[in-house]
């Protein structure tokens, strides 16, 4: 739960700055989609959450 809340805040902040700088491209579309999935907690949020947790757990092993 704590990871999800922090990812929503992170994606929301990145999306805000991308919108403010008017640099909307493929990266901004990806950030917006990720923000929407985490925020709405749709049926696709489960696999996305699992992927995000796996990536977060893999980062210290790099």
Helix/strand structural class: mainly alpha
Number of strands: 0
Tally of helical segments: 3
Largest sheet: none
Order of helices and strands: HHH
End-to-end CA span: 24 Å
Topology:
Layout: H1 2-21, H2 26-40, H3 45-58
What does this structure look like?
Helices cover 79% and strands 0% of the residues. By secondary structure, it is mostly helical. It is globular, with a radius of gyration of 12 Å. The two termini are 24 Å apart.
Compact summary:
By secondary structure, the chain is mainly α. It is built from 3 helices and no strands.
Task: Describe the structure using short key phrases.
single chain, 62 residues, mainly alpha, globular
């Amino acid at each position: 739960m704590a990871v999800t809340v922090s990812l929503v805040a992170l994606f929301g902040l990145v999306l805000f700055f991308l919108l403010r700088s008017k640099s909307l491209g493929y990266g901004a579309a990806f950030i917006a989609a990720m923000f929407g999935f985490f925020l709405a907690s749709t049926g696709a949020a489960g696999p996305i959450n699992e992927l995000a947790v796996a990536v977060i757990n893999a980062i210290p092993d790099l």
